[in-house]
Amino acid sequence: MKNYSADHPGSYSCQAWSSVWAPNLVHVLACSALVLVVIMAPMTSTMVQAVDPDQLQDFCVADLSPTNPVIVNGFPCKPSANVTSKDFLFTGLSTPATVPTTGIKATATFATVFEYPALNTLGISHARLDFGPGGVIPPHTHPLASETLYVLEGTIYTGFVSYEGVLYAETLKVGDLYVFPKGTIHFQINVGTTHAASLNALTSQDPGLLFVANQLLASNIPDAVLETSLGINATALKYLQASVPPLGGF
Predict the structure, then answer these.
(1) Does the keyword GTP-binding apply (predicted)?
(2) Pair 114, 64: CB distance under 8 Å
(3) pTM, whole model, 2 decimals?
């Protein structure tokens, strides 16, 4: 076998070490550690590089112009010379949305990068939820963000399902705060007799919104797959598919 150390004087092999030290337990452990370091070094480098970088400037107000030819992960920046203090102000959460596009007897008013371009690259967005009595935001996920919910008014029952399938849920009152880990299925319902509202913060400028029932039953998944997966027959599946309310979102 070709001796790598002979051709590369600056390198050291376990065989070369053994010529200096007599074979013993310390020698074996030293060689094993050297091999482990060599194997793990590229993996460690990859893990470090996998972390999302911080923003590279103090702000980058999004240029949402449909004619902008630049394609990036996010949005290109509006020229700083055209940015004013008004770009950083958003008043859209002062009143609730008028159309219940994301819930049943409930509305969501969004402040994502699409409504609030100053959020571009900052990794944050907000939403205001408003509920009539019995109003529901159905089970859903935000694949790109964790979320907190702060109760502004009323009584809200909310919770999430962990990756192990455990439901964590509480009844919240004014001033209470609850957190939903990234990607978990969660929901909200007004369990009081009056109007309820919350202010939610999310850790992405565009967190995404996937409603569980709609993703499952209002998509193009073959009926045979759904019938087998849910343990129901074709008649029951068609009933469920026809019952899912159309919902919008982020």
Answers:
(1) no
(2) yes
(3) 0.72
